[in-house]
Specification:
It is a single chain. By secondary structure, this protein is mainly α. It has 3 domains: 1-64, Leucine-rich Repeat Variant (Alpha Horseshoe); 65-157, Leucine-rich Repeat Variant; 167-223. It contains 14 helices and no strands. The protein has helices spanning 3-13, 18-26, 33-41, 49-61, 67-77, 81-94, 100-109, 113-126, 132-138, 144-156, 163-167, 175-185, 191-200, 206-222. Helix 2 (18-26) runs parallel beside helix 4 (49-61), helix 4 packs parallel to helix 6 and helix 12 (175-185) packs parallel to helix 14 (206-222). The radius of gyration is 20 Å and the shape is elongated. Keywords: Antenna complex, Phycobilisome.
Amino acid sequence: MSEINLQDIATQLDSDSTKDRMIALASLRNVPAESAVPLIKKVLNDESLQIRSMAVFALGIKQTEESFPILLNILETEKDYGIRADAAGALGYLEDPRGFEPLIRAFYEDTDWLVRFSAAVALGNLKDPRAYDALIQALESDEVILHQAAIAALGEIKAIESVDAILKFAQAEDWLVRQRLAEALGNLPSPKSVSALKFLAKDSHPQVSEAAKISLERLGELV
């Protein structure tokens, strides 16, 4: 990427047009992280929440030494819950073990369910077994979307000991919960997992049954 093109993007990010700034931000997709992050920082406080959201997400993809502290600050100080949720998700993309403690805090302490959802997903992305207790707690939430995130994350951290706790969702009303269960069980080799997957393979929703069949194949390879 030539300096001229980068300067063009920088200029476009200063445009009064929200559309122009959005296009410029999207054009950083193929720019190396070291060059992209300084430009991403230009719009982290943009008046448009959509652009701010895109910028925060981009920091999770374009990883430099600056990415983690910037995202951490946003997670801990941002007033808009949507942006905090974006920051939690981006910290998961970084897969930086330093993200565990702030994500756990966000999960337990943030008052918005969307932030807690993003934190649970991110904890799964970190694949840190220390997240087990928080994820098990999320299964008791009244928010179905937290069940989805927690089940998926327990699969990501390969928490075999969670099988009994997540199997109670095998007949969940929400088919996405059942799909996440089918996917998670593919990472949790046990006789109970195999039995549950055979049940889910007959699920009335095609995406659930397909996920169960794929997980059964995966377990066959693991065993």
